[in-house]
């Protein structure tokens, strides 16, 4: 057994992670709210955002599970990668074909990527804190491969 040191995330990193997630999601949703596009287009972009957040968190969890020796099937791991790639591709295709100004397209792309980054960072922090419990210096046994 290898003992791996789990570091407690700093308050600054936790705050920055939540801020990135909130800023990305809020900016994207406010942009949709104010956009002069049909309701079905707004629904499409909102669904891609939610799908992207879920797939990014699922992929991050699967990667971390594998690193920690938690069994993750190859099929699920592959589906996580395909899912994340698919939602990024759906956003890119949607924006490419949208009748929006280039600045608006860039805004949606950056807000989307910021939200994805934030979701992964928040999930990492939540998991680290859950593994640590109340301890500041915990060691977790990890099986050798």
From TrEMBL:
GO terms for cellular component: plasma membrane. This is YiaAB two helix domain-containing protein. Pfam families: YiaAB. Residues 13-65, 76-128 form the YiaAB two helix domain. GO terms for biological process: DNA damage response. The chain crosses the membrane at residues 12-32, 44-63, 75-99, 105-122. Keywords: Membrane, Transmembrane, Transmembrane helix. Signal peptide: none annotated.
């Amino acid at each position: 057994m290898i003992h791996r040191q789990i570091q407690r995330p700093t308050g600054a990193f936790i705050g920055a992670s939540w801020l990135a997630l909130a800023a990305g999601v809020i900016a994207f949703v406010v942009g949709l709210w104010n956009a002069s596009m049909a309701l079905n287009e707004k629904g499409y972009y909102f669904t891609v955002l939610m799908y992207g957040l879920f797939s990014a968190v699922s992929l991050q969890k699967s990667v971390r599970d594998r690193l920690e020796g938690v069994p993750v099937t190859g099929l699920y791991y592959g589906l996580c990668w395909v899912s994340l790639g698919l939602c990024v591709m759906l956003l890119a295709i949607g924006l490419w074909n949208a009748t929006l100004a280039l600045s608006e397209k860039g805004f949606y792309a950056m807000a989307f990527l910021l939200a994805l980054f934030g979701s992964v960072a928040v999930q990492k922090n939540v998991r680290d804190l859950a593994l640590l419990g109340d301890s500041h210096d915990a060691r977790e046994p990890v099986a050798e491969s």
